[in-house]
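quick one if you have a minute, typing this from the bus. theres a chain ive been looking at and ive put its sequence and its fold in token form underneath. please have a look and point out which stretches look like helix strand or loop to you. anything you notice is useful, everything is just below.

***
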Amino acid sequence: MDHPKPKVLPAGHPCPSLGRGALEPGSVRFSVPPSISRNSAMVNEPGGHGGPNPRLVDSSIGRESSKVSSRCSKGLLSPERHERLREKIRRRMESGDKWFSLEFFPPRIAEGAPAFISLLDELGAGGPLFIDVTWHLAGDPGSDKETSSMKIASIAMNYCGLETVLHMTCCCQSQEKITRHLHKAKRLGLKNILALKGDPVADHLKDKEGGFHHAVDLVKHIRSEFGDYFDIGVAGYPKGHPDAGSFEADLKFLKEKVSAGADFIITQLFFEADTFFHFVKACSEIGITCPILPGIFLIQNYHSLQQLVKLSKLEVPQQIKDVIEPIKDNNAAICNYGIHQAVSLCQELLASGLVPGLHFYTMNRKEAAIEVLKRLGMWTENPRRFLPWAVSAHPRRRKEDVRPIFWAYRPKSYIYRTQEWDEFPNGRWASSYPPAFGELQDDFPTYLKSKSPKEELLKMWGEELTSEESVFEVFTHYLSGEPNRSGCTVTCLPWNNKPLAVETSLKEKLLRVNRRGVLTINSQPNINGQPSSHPVVGWGPSGGYVFQKAYLEFFTSRQTMEALQQVLKKYELRVNYHIVNVKAGHSGQMMANGHGEDWR
């Protein structure tokens, strides 16, 4: 299978529409497969500490890089980046690899969106094959609200890089409205739908004239209107749907959904493995051959268990009741039991050979899900990086394999600000102004900003900045990890929402210059031939080597910059630099050794 092949970011080529040149030398990291010469190279982003948002003078300095560029061997990138979900599932089943997926519901209020996105990032780090987002009819799920199902699914796919399945229900909605939702999902790049009947809510009690009454109608409509664009999942009920009349009747309805075009089945929760085994056998006997994923509910407290059982009309087995009832007021004890119960259930399911993967109902909580997956050996602590930066799962960005280094630690911001581009750089930066590259958007939604509340940020950065030195202290405390005067640890900066990267081995030198007013926001040390499997700097296929140039980006005063320019003249052939002064106009002025331009 052919896949895009990353290449070197050529020195001196300007970045399209970013308002400044592509950083020349220090912005490049190399990873060379064994079959490629040492001149073959791939761009990487730094393991430093931040991305740009110039205020004083923003300077980027790096050693000179090679201008030779070669394509790397085929198959470099993860094949899963270019596969449909059903293809990913099929390939995992054929290889015998076990995998998991996770279900979430949208946050209730807009203020909870940043923390929810952080939750997606944290659980996404464990390597789920996909995640799915529920559809709540009462919550305006198809709108552009920060809490809508459509928006959350789009964020998970685009900004968190997760293969995403969007739930969609059809009861009490017109065919026209459902079609609009589907067109919007397609426009956003979403390619997977879990087609459900859904339950009516207080404001939507009556079926709409010309609407759909059952999930099979929705599956047929999707295939009729959109052909094979969407991969479609449907729900299965191991004990039969309570409204179906009988288990056999419900199996017949399930077969109709699969025959109408469903690609896979996710089951409702159950508590005993034999329930699932019986269901799978019954499905096979009536000719259902698509993958069936068991839905695993993590018991985390008494109230959520009672609510879910009420909604699903399921009966909790007596042996579980006997354990839960005496400890129903002890959430910690119930959670520990829930983890033990889920691990035992999953181990029995996996041992059967009938389960391609496990689907977890997380209830938007991470601790229990992570613990269960770790005990099962399915949590990937350090997943292999096929590219050196966070990859978006949007279909239009599949060929993207180059990004400017100064956005290394603000990937969500970069994705948002370039979302309207018709094409994305692959291979090398070309002209600054091709029609495919749009202008860089200036606005940035609050839900993609820091997950820390304002009160916490003020404790980290100070209620009041009384002098330049108080600004310097924010940077030095971030680098050192030592508590500030308020006893608070500075874990983020406005240019980086994460703690200092492990790769930053220049800490003492960075601390020294930050104390003197050179405020570093992005850096990387030089790397010379580390294996691509290295736990910190490694990326790409096994057997390769990583080379990267030293790079530093910082804010400083005009006086310091003028003095530095005099020093840099001594290293004209070894060090390249860009200087941006944002006070010189709307977009600032850029100077560099070798060339300079006004970006207006």
In short: Residues 1-48, 50-77, 429-438, 595-600 have pLDDT under 50 and may be disordered. The CA atoms of residues 465 and 471 lie 7 Å apart. The longest helix spans residues 331-352. The longest strand covers residues 57-63.
